[in-house]
Amino acid sequence: MARQSVVAATVFSGLAALVLAQSTVAPPQESVDAEAVEDVVEGTARGTTPVAVVGTPAARFAAGTWLDLTHAFDANTIYWPTEQGFQFEPGANGPNPKGYYYAANRFATAEHGGTHLDAPRHFAEGRHTADQIEPARLVGEAAVIDVRAKCAANAVYEVTPDDFVAWEQEHGRQLVDVIVLLRTGWSKRWGDRTAYLGTSERGPEAVPLLTFPGLAPEGAKWLVEHRRVKAVGIDTASIDHGPSTLFGSHVALCKADTPIFENLTGLEQLPQEGCFVAALPMKIAGGSGGPLRVLARLPDGE
């Protein structure tokens, strides 16, 4: 199993490097040292060409600095007020009668809680479910839109097209073929339900009390009508701001088959451009969303 795991990880990293290569100039091809490859991919088939071709660039890519943009799932994980929280049932944990250690637990969760995916089907009939999203929509370069100052001044701020245009003017490029991440600064409130959601209440009566920033519907429409983005993520409980009743940003993005990532964390550690993001959701057949693990690789030298 260890040999298979190393090969699988190597292949995944290689694919990630290839995705990045689509938007960057490929470096000159280097000769491959078979012994070096064997050192990097220890335990794999020795000296085989596939390992050498995939392993060397993948190893360089994997050796970069990686950040986890995911909140852990536990008893304190924040869910929408109408949903049950994360349920974890401990199971086996200890020595097995046959002499080896064994651990296995059970969990139950709503699709939409903690760091999670909103599949397009969530707000658009006939659009992709969680298992149908093209993998290429879930990996790629991130464009981080920093609106922390505006959100600090206005707890229900909505990101507008002007914020996107300002980013483009500053960086000299358009928001095309990128994963847009909205950095509101709200993740620092995680762990305090009232501070994060605006209320500690639960149930339908809590929904009108929700207070947090989001993406304005006109901002979502601008992205899908005037730009071409892979996905949109945010470090709050919803892509629509707390007071929303029509969820216009959800509707606009989902109708355009654009995946949404919610309850992200650690966005303050990312540069505004240049980092690679991989957002890997649980592949739930027919799902409207699901738990999500999001990783970011910082640009070389950062």
Secondary structure elements and their pairing?
Layout (H helix, E strand, L loop, with lengths): L1 H20 L12 H7 L8 H14 L3 E3 L18 E9 L5 E8 L7 E3 L20 E8 L1 H6 L4 E2 L1 H11 L7 E5 L9 H5 L16 E2 L1 H10 L4 E4 L13 H8 L4 E3 L10 E9 L7 E9 L5
Parallel strand pairs: 5-7, 6-8, 7-9, 9-10
Antiparallel strand pairs: 1-12, 2-3, 4-10, 4-12, 5-11, 11-12
What does this structure look like?
- The protein has 302 residues and is an alpha/beta fold.
- It folds into two domains: 2-63, no CATH class; 68-85 and 111-297, Putative cyclase (Glucose Oxidase, domain 1).
- It has helices at 2-21, 34-40, 49-62, 148-153, 161-171, 193-197, 217-226, 248-255, and strands at residues 66-68, 87-95, 101-108, 116-118, 139-146, 158-159, 179-183, 214-215, 231-234, 260-262, 273-281, 289-297.
- A seven-stranded mixed β-barrel has the order 4-10-9-7-5-11-12. Strands 2-3 form a two-stranded antiparallel ribbon.
Query: Which spans of ≥5 residues are poorly predicted at pLDDT below 50?
Result: 1-53
Count of DSSP-assigned helices: 8
Distance between the termini: 34 Å
Number of strands: 12
CATH topology of the largest domain: Glucose Oxidase, domain 1
Query: How do the SSEs run, as a string of H and E?
Result: HHHEEEEEHEHEHEHEHEEE
